[in-house]
Amino acid sequence: MIRALTLLAALVTAVLLCAVTGAWPTHLPGLAGSLVAVVLLARAFGALAVRMGQPAVVGELVGGLIIGPSLLGRAVPGLSDRLLPDGVLPGLTAISEVGLLFFMFLVGLEINPAELRRGARQSSVLATANVATSFLAGLAIAPFVVGWMRPDPGVDAATFAVFLGVVMAITAMPVLARVLDAHSLIDTRLGAVAITGAAANDVVVWVVLGTTVTLHLSGGLAASVLTMSLMALVLALVVAGMRWHLNRQPAGRRPRLRTHALVLSSVTAVGLAASGAQLDFLGTLLLGILLPRHPALTELRAAMRGPTVRILLPPFFAVVGMQSDLFATGGAVGHLPWWLLLFVAFTAVKPATAYVVTRSLGEDRHFAASLGVLMNCRGVSELAVLGLGLELGFLAPESFTVFVLFALLSTVSTSPLLSWVDRRRTATKAGADTGPAAGTHDAAAAPVAAGGREPQLTRT
User: Fold this and answer.
1) In a domain, 453, yes or no
2) Which residues are within 8 A (CB) of 371 and not within 5 positions of it... i.e. 6 or more apart?
3) Torsion region of 184: left, alpha or beta (phi above 0 gives left; psi -120 to 50 gives alpha)
4) pTM for the structure as a whole
5) Which of 84, 93, 85 is nearest to 38 (CA)?
6) Which CATH number goes with the domain that contains 12?
7) Largest CA distance in the chain
8) Which contiguous run of DSSP H or E holds residue 329?
9) What is the distance in angstroms between the CA of the first residue and the CA of the last residue of the chain?
10) Could you read off the pLDDT of 208-247 as tens digits, one per residue?
C-alpha cells in the first residue's frame, strides 16, 4: 500500500512540476510507453552490471546512453523515435525530477546525524580536506577553460569556478554503500568511516552548490539571502510540523497510512517550494536529514526504495542519455590537453587527499588507499549536478557529455580498485612474520562498534 502511495505522490508531484514550469507532455500514450521502455531497459542493464560486479547505476546509465542519440538514435533512429516520440520529454523530465527529489530524501534519511557526531573528528577532517582540495583544483583550472566550456556568457567566471569545484568534489554516497555491501565491508570500520565521510562531504557540497545557484539566479546577495531564507523557513515549518505529528504517534503501534502520506506530502512541499531557485534536491536532502529517526520513517524508507529506484529514477538516466551525444564531442579534441588535466584532477585529487589525510590520522596504508578509492565513487549525485549545470548554462552539451563519461569511468573503476587494494592487503598479511600486517587487515575490516547501522540504500 505504501508503494502505491509513493507512486501516487510521485504522479501528483510530477503534475505540479509541469504546472510550475508550464511544460506539459503532448503525447500521453507515448509517455506511458516510453516510461515502460525506459524502466525495462534500466532493469535489464542494471542486472547485467550487477552480474559483472558493478553497481546497478552503471548499467542504468549505460542503458540511458544507449536509448539516446549516442547509439540507438544514430544506429536505428526510427526505433529511437518510437521509444521516445516527440512530446514526451517534458513528462519524462518531470518524472525524472520527482525521482531525484525522492531519491535525495532517501539519501537524507540514510545520513544519521548521531553517527556523524559520533565520528565527527575523522569524517569532518576528511570531508573538509576533500572539499577544499577539490575546490582548489576547480578554481585553479576554471580560468583556463571557462571561455569554451561555459556556453552562457551570463554565467560569471566566479560562479563557473565554484560549479567546477562542486563537480570535482561530489561523492555518491548510495553508490558507495552499494560497493561496500558487494565487498562485505559495509558493517566494518572502513565502511563506517567511508559512509560518514561521504555524507559530510556531500552535505557541504550541496549547500555550497545551492548557495551558488541562488546567487546566480537572483542576481544579487540580498535577493539570494531572501530566497535561501524563504526555503529555510518552509523547511523549518515542515520539519517542525512532522516532528510534532511523529511525536504524537503511540509507541509500539504500527504507523498509520496517514503518517506516510504526510511525510510524502512534506517531500513534495519542500521540493516545490525550493524548485524555483533550483534548490529542490538540497531541500529534500536536508528534510531527510532533519526529520527524527522514527519507526514510521524506517517503514516508509523501506517501502519507498523500490518504486523510487526501479521506476522513478530510470527516466533520469534516459534524460541524461538524451542530453548526451558521444559522437558530438569532436570539439573537445581541440582542448584535449585541458580535458586530460581535468580527468586527472577528477580522478586523482579526492583519492590522494583521502589517502594523505587518513594516513595523517594514524591509519595504515591499505585502509587509507581503500578509503581514497571509495571517496572517488560517483553516481546519481554527480549526474544530478551535471544536469543542473547543463540546464543553467554552466556547461555546454559536449562538456556535459565528457563529464558524464568521467563519472561513469570513476564509478566503474571503484570496485576493481577496491579489490586490488584488498588483494595487496591480503598478500602483505600473508607475507608478514609477525602481527602488524594482520592488525592492519583487522583494523580495516573490524566490525562497526555497537550502535552502528548498515545503510539500506544500496540498490543504486
Assistant:
1) no
2) 126, 190, 193, 194, 197, 354, 355, 358, 363
3) left
4) 0.78
5) 84
6) 1.20.1530.20
7) 71
8) none
9) 23
10) 888 888 877 776 667 667 777 787 888 889 889 988 888 8
